[in-house]
Amino acid sequence: MEFLGVRLVGINAETVYKLLLSVTVIAVILFGRTALTTVLVRWRGGDRHNQRAAFWGRQVVSIIFAVIVLIALVSIWFDDPQRLTTGLGLMSAGLAFALQRVITALAGYVLIMRGNTFTVGERIKMGGVRGDVIALSFLQTKILEMGQPPSVQSEDPAMWVRSRQFTGRIVTVTNDKVFDEPVFNYTRDFPFIWEEIRIPVPYTANRRIAESILIDCATRETHVFDEVSAPHRNQLEQRYGITLDDFTPRVFYRLTDNWLELTLRFIVPEHGIRQVKDTIARSILDAFEEAGITIASATFDIVGLPPLRVELQAPRHK
């Protein structure tokens, strides 16, 4: 093919025909993919089951249409088997060198899907980000970020929200992170976690009444979770052959130089933890006030001073 008297190397009528055909085929396939995805979105209901079903449907549609596009392009451009072999060899060498991270991310996607690592709607920690998965694609995972409790505030990135509540930021993490570090899943097999509230009380306080108050306050707020979590507990124990701790609230003692530290341990669902702890803390403060129990603090009382001797000297006159 010539343009303004200049012969264009590698461009001829056959190449232009294949290029136009490729563009047309890709446009038709993308239109079909968009139409089918729209049907899945409209079919999605309000409950979580239908949302996850629609998500998996979109994933299957994306994979099928990606394979169709690949087969169509190979059929158009490599009609000769010898040219196909040569082309695939060159493409493989180039992709292996230039797209290492992309290929690793794609392999991470396969591992996530094949290994049931997590899915949309689950709460995870991946790539140093805690939050709920809101989107999962071939190369990236989008997480609605949540804050961090005070015990891990020093981790990078630091959070201004000091509890497990959403910050409002959406963080994109590449799927290759599953090969570099562990993925923490809060909801995959057991959608509950154990929480603790530590309260120091003076050694002079009635520790048995304080312990009873802590257990009563926690039981009032978590007894429903104990019943709801029982089926998940049985399924987890049967699947992995483990035995979980008792789900009823318990108090543990720790002796320090200044006070007795009471640690209240209880179970809560993966969402709404801050509200539950806030309600329990308010109930504990009210009950402690009625029982006359104070919370210990790092203060010091001066109980005595040694005798002091003060000498006054008369001023000298010149």
Write the layout of secondary structure elements.
Layout: E1 2-3, E2 6-7, H1 13-43, H2 48-77, H3 81-98, H4 100-114, E3 123-126, E4 129-136, E5 140-146, E6 166-174, E7 184-185, E8 192-201, H5 207-240, E9 250-255, E10 260-269, H6 273-291
Antiparallel strand pairs: 1-2, 3-4, 3-7, 4-5, 5-6, 8-10, 9-10
**Discrete helix count:** 6
Dominant shape: elongated
Can you give the mean pLDDT? 81
Q: What is the CATH class designation of the largest domain?
A: Alpha Beta
User: How much of the polypeptide forms β-strand, as a percent range?
Assistant: 15-25%
Summed up, the domain count is: 3
CATH topology heading of the largest domain: Alpha-Beta Plaits
- List unreliable stretches of 5+ residues: none
In a nutshell, what does this entry contain?
46% of the residues lie in helices and 19% in strands.
Explain this structure.
By secondary structure, the chain is α+β, with helices and mostly antiparallel strands. The protein folds into three domains: 11-98; 123-185, Roll (SH3 type barrels), CATH 2.30.30; 192-291, Alpha-Beta Plaits (2-Layer Sandwich). The chain is 46% helix and 19% strand. It has helices at 13-43, 48-77, 81-98, 100-114, 207-240, 273-291; strands at residues 2-3, 6-7, 123-126, 129-136, 140-146, 166-174, 184-185, 192-201, 250-255, 260-269. The strands form three sheets. It has a five-stranded antiparallel sheet, with no helix packed on it. The chain has a three-stranded antiparallel sheet with strand order 8-10-9. Strand 1 (2-3) and strand 2 form a beta hairpin. Helix 1 runs antiparallel to helix 2 (48-77) and helix 5 (207-240) runs antiparallel to helix 6. The longest helix has 34 residues, at 207-240. It is elongated, with a radius of gyration of 32 Å. The model has no long low-confidence stretch (mean pLDDT 81).
